[in-house]
Amino acid sequence: MIELGDLGLDEGAHLLIKRAFTASSTITVRGASPTIAIDLPAWCRAQGHRVERLDPLEGDRTAGPVFRIDRGPDRWHGAERAGTVATPVERAPARWGLAARGALVEAGAPELDLPLSERREVWADEAARLYAQAAAAQWDPATAVPWDAPIDHPAEVEDAVVQVMTYLIENETAALLVPARFLGRLHPQFREVMQLLAIQAADEARHIEVFTRRARLRRDVLGLSTAGGQASLASLFDEPEFAIASFLLAVLGEGSFLSLLWFLRDHAPDLCTREVARLAAQDEARHVAFGLAHLQRHVAEEPALRDRLAGAIERRHAALAHTSGLNAEVFDALILLAAGSWDPAALRRGHAAVVELQRDMDAGRRQRLARLGFAPEAAASLAALHTRNFM
Amino acid sequence: MTTAKELVLGAVAYDAKVVPIWEGFRTYFQANGLPFDFVLYSNYERQVEAHLRGEVDVAWNSPLAWIETVRAAHGRRVEAIAMRDTDCDLTSVVLVRADGPVREAADLRGKRIGVGAADSPQATLIPLVALAEAGIEGTVVRHDVLLGKHGDHVGGERDAVKALLAGTVDAACVIDGNHLAFTREGLLGANTVRVVLQTAPYDHCNFTTIDGGPPAIARFRELLLAMSYDDPRVRPLLDMEGLKIWRPGRTSGYALLERAVDRYGTLAPWLARQP
């Protein structure tokens, strides 16, 4: 007998009834709230439970009427668990929709079109750790950057800084939007990857903010955006496969970008520029690490992916062959930025630093390709085919 | 494109949700090989008149519309072929303020009795006849929300309860489940009202046919009764329409409403206009 006491159905007594149904499909309930005889049958009818009022035992009338209730149809018939909370399944069905991983999902939920639903395509065991690291490493642009640090280099060196910032903003915009488009197609079964892509997008948004703010410290207009640079970035948008887009953007593009940001950290003429580059590089290193991690796993499960990755580099190279690659303005701006002045000896140093940067980028690409299992010769030739726009 | 062979159902659009409900049922029937379509009416009288003229094959009728059909059919065979589990054995209740002077139903003699729409069986006709048969009559204060929809819209009952709380009526008549529903939506605090009368059980809506309807009616009824709440494809339809299972129709639960209609002459003006 479930005793409701004077707790009414209008005060939450239905919880005691539902709880009793977890143990038995037929229960008896007694309640003494003033409207129990009205509310209990009405509630049962709406729930599809069959209810019958039993006469209370003699001498027991003050405790209120007694009802026998037979449980009605259950909407949880046919429900299934959306995997287990700890680890994702290999293939996540659309019928699980937005349910939390490990939740019990009622049958008949709307199927969402989330084509990135195979673990092999998206998963990395490192995703949870990288997400936690990213969440802990978020920095506040307002306080992390010394915006008031002195800028005392020549005006044309400042123009070079602004040109480089303009180029960085354009590239970071691609680095935000390309993964964000995949994020919208990712099955939430892969929660850690979803979280990581989301925080990557937030990282890029912050980078766009600080590069813009740095450019505007001394200038009201930004620099140049070239057709070739945009063609290179646009080719990332056209790639429908997550693995290939991630390979081109994260492993090769952001990997090269990492070298560029380190270059700026070491060679920029003012503290503020050096700091925004340093902070952005910390974040980009995580993006590269995730790209490498899930591709290493994917390649291990599907060795044929390696050929598709190589093919993607070759196709992109061919598609961009007619463009000018990295624009001369960015290249020259990097030299002047690193030189810090028009002094010929300084320009020589700046030029040498940019040549060294390109060598660094190439070495980094070869190293990352090797980690994906490419032989040294293949890695070298593929690294050389990477877009001259860096990203 | 529609075809001439479809079974056509009439329903009253008492709320915007009526459209997705019958669109969903149309999909269900058609997926099960029954060509089906529906026509929505703005009020039950138009629907009953159209049904009598043969413009629809089956009507989803309120209990009052059922009685209208029977009385205007002049001896033609009128049947209730199916109804919801939630249409069976309803009651209405008369609420008074817990802190007010009314202690029992008899105290309402000569008092202001708040009811729903004039044509609402559950919030007006049935509770008033139950009070009257107990010898209790007072000044009826109607809350006419969407006349012609036979109280399907909850607004009239809600307004009656608001009037009770505001003190402009001494009692409010509602269907039993709305006591709980109004508490849930915050209109009523727990134990702010008392129940001084609960009517005898009565039945609510049914699918009505006249002269048996076309042969496809048998398949329509069979498909209705086969709908299982365990089936996730039909469960949303059942949830929207507010039932767990369709039951065979019965007409034993309309006597109370028949007596109310007779006592108050509710249908006389409408019946006088019928051929």
Helices and strands, with pairings:
The complex is a heterodimer of chains A (391) and B (275).
Chain A lengths: L1 E4 L8 H8 L4 E6 L4 H12 L2 E5 L11 E5 L9 E2 L22 E2 L13 H4 L4 H10 L4 H4 L10 H29 L7 H25 L11 H11 L4 H26 L3 H31 L3 H16 L7 H12 L4 H28 L4 H10 L6
Parallel strand pairs in A: 1-2
Antiparallel strand pairs in A: 2-4, 3-4, 5-6
Chain B lengths: L6 E6 L5 H14 L4 E6 L2 H9 L5 E4 L1 H10 L5 E7 L7 E6 L14 E3 L6 H13 L5 E3 L13 H12 L4 E5 H9 L8 E6 L7 E5 L5 H10 L9 H7 L4 E3 L6 H10 L3 H5 L3
Parallel strand pairs in B: 1-2, 1-3, 6-7, 6-8
Antiparallel strand pairs in B: 3-10, 4-10, 4-11, 5-8, 5-9
Helix pairs in contact in B: 2-3, 4-9
Molecular structure report:
The complex is a heterodimer of chains A (391) and B (275). Chain A is α+β, with helices and mostly antiparallel strands. Chain A has 3 domains: 2-70, Translation Initiation Factor IF3 (2-Layer Sandwich), CATH 3.30.110; 76-113, no CATH class; 119-385, Ribonucleotide Reductase, subunit A. Chain A is 58% helix and 6% strand. Chain A is built from 14 helices and 6 strands. Chain A has helices at 14-21, 36-47, 119-122, 127-136, 141-144, 155-183, 191-215, 227-237, 242-267, 271-301, 305-320, 328-339, 344-371, 376-385, and strands at 2-5, 26-31, 50-54, 66-70, 80-81, 104-105. A 4-stranded mixed beta sheet of chain A has the order 1-2-4-3, covered by helices on one side. In chain A, α1 (14-21) links the parallel β1 and β2. In chain A, α4 (127-136) packs antiparallel against α10 (271-301), α7 packs antiparallel against α10 (271-301) and α13 packs across α14. The longest helix of chain A has 31 residues, at 271-301. The radius of gyration of chain A is 31 Å and the shape is elongated. Chain B has 275 residues and is an alpha/beta fold. Chain B has 2 domains: 7-87 and 203-272, D-Maltodextrin-Binding Protein, domain 2 (3-Layer(aba) Sandwich), CATH 3.40.190.10; 92-198, 3-Layer(aba) Sandwich (D-Maltodextrin-Binding Protein, domain 2), CATH 3.40.190.10. In chain B, 36% of the residues lie in helices and 20% in strands. In chain B, the strands form 2 sheets. A 6-stranded mixed beta sheet of chain B has the order 2-1-3-10-4-11, with helices on both faces. In chain B, α4 crosses α9 (255-264). The two termini of chain B are 34 Å apart. The relative contact order of chain B is 0.20. The mean pLDDT of chain B is 95. Chains A and B meet through α2 of A and α6 and β9 of B.
